[in-house]
């Protein structure tokens, strides 16, 4: 019996309206550090915001630089973003050049008091396809704080948050950075981080049990966001395009059609951000379903304020993935 393959697609091209939406202001204003109130912290995009809010609790005011409805690939800065960075004491980022716009923005803000927490520090990473081709194999390495890597086009894949255990490492790094910036609330940060890390580890155990029957099976993502998730749970991840700004060519669609016909692929898994008529049509032509896998680069405003959103979306992703595998 041929192995079951699953296709994940990021449906749709980046539209002008989405780019314009990226120009929105941050979701809330950070409190001034001179007010003696909570530590003003700015985060970049959704998973980093969720992790930071889980650790911050009542000790810090967390402002998302990128509106939750906009992914980091689509972000365009406005003057209000500079104001948020000027007021902040801490900036938390994913790192690994996921936020390729950030260095220039921070430099423009001119805040000499701003501490930057790179949540990818110390995490074992996976090479991007170009680097794998150059070396002839995939390997992990420790990412140092001062290393520079291009998002997806560079040496390292940045989508570390989709592995719950790497996410727990990100939370630990965020905890340590907030303690350094605000030692008066150290116990609160430690307590909040410990509780959230426990939930992440429980989530990992739960997912591992649910996906164990599908060990070795393959899914194909639209863009290259899935290798950490796949590695953690013994799956194989392929992709159509490197970054989501790109659209699949006719040759890409033909390659997918061949993959579907020569394997037992049960579903195309589409990212929720946009609809994609070409993939919907392909699924219909090939007689397979369309199911969603959310890489958590965007969410609603309400969801972005609740750290449990990460846990809920990961559980939903796994349920949908099992359905796609033929569960």
Helix-strand layout with pairing:
Blueprint: E1 5-10, H1 16-21, E2 39-43, H2 46-56, E3 60-64, H3 79-87, E4 90-93, H4 102-109, E5 115-118, E6 124-126, H5 129-135, E7 140-142, H6 164-181, H7 186-211, E8 218-223, H8 227-232, E9 236-241, H9 250-262, E10 267-271, H10 277-286, E11 289-292, H11 301-304, H12 308-324
Parallel strand pairs: 1-8, 1-10, 2-3, 2-4, 4-5, 8-9, 10-11
Antiparallel strand pairs: 6-7
From the alpha-carbon coordinates, what is the Rg to the nearest angstrom? Answer: 20 Å
Strand percentage lies at 15-25%
**Total helix count?**
12
- Whole-number average pLDDT? 80
Folded structure, characterized:
- The chain has 327 residues and is an alpha/beta fold.
- Helix content is 41%, strand content 16%.
- The chain is built from 12 helices and 11 strands.
- The chain has helices spanning 16-21, 46-56, 79-87, 102-109, 129-135, 164-181, 186-211, 227-232, 250-262, 277-286, 301-304, 308-324, and strands at 5-10, 39-43, 60-64, 90-93, 115-118, 124-126, 140-142, 218-223, 236-241, 267-271, 289-292.
- It has a 5-stranded parallel β-sheet, sandwiched between helices. Strands 3-2-4-5 form a 4-stranded parallel β-sheet, with helices on both faces.
- Helix 3 (79-87) crosses helix 4 (102-109) and helix 6 (164-181) runs antiparallel to helix 7.
- It starts with a strand and ends with a helix.
Keywords:
single chain; 327 residues; alpha/beta; 5-stranded parallel β-sheet; 4-stranded parallel β-sheet; 12 helices
Quick overview of this protein structure:
The chain is of the alpha/beta class and 327 residues long. The chain is 41% helix and 16% strand. It contains twelve helices and eleven strands.
